[in-house]
């Protein structure tokens, strides 16, 4: 059970770190958001958005793939939480 809890937390962590790759530059930002980043001010704004999105998550029409990843992350958290709860409930019975 501990392994399942750890695995689910790792999956969720990786999912939420993926948008942070946008801080690596305009080419990566363009790939993440599907837009051309050709202005330095826009690049700074989008890098800032990548950091915030990596920290907070979110959804709009262009980020539906990320929303689906968030759903997978939520399912992993629920599975990990249930495994943790079950392991602790079993330990208390002993």
Q: What distinguishing features does this structure have?
A:
single chain; 94 residues; mainly alpha
Task: Break the fold down into its secondary structure elements and pairings.
Elements: H1 2-17, H2 26-33, H3 40-56, H4 64-93
Q: How many structural domains can be distinguished in the coordinates?
A: 1
How many helix segments? 4
The main sheet comes to: none
- The rounded Rg comes to 17 Å
Give the number of DSSP strands. Answer: 0
**Which H/E pattern describes the elements?**
HHHH
Give the helix proportion (percent range): over 70%
Instruction: Quote the beta fraction.
Output: under 5%
- Structural class, from secondary structure content? mainly alpha
Distance between the termini: 16 Å
CA-based shape = elongated
Which spans have pLDDT < 50 for at least 5 consecutive residues? none
Average of pLDDT: 80
What does this structure look like?
The chain is mainly alpha-helical. It has one domain (2-93). 76% of the residues lie in helices and 0% in strands. It contains 4 helices and no strands. The protein has helices at residues 2-17, 26-33, 40-56, 64-93. Helix 1 packs antiparallel against helix 4 (64-93). The longest helix has 30 residues, at 64-93. The two termini are 16 Å apart. The mean pLDDT is 80.
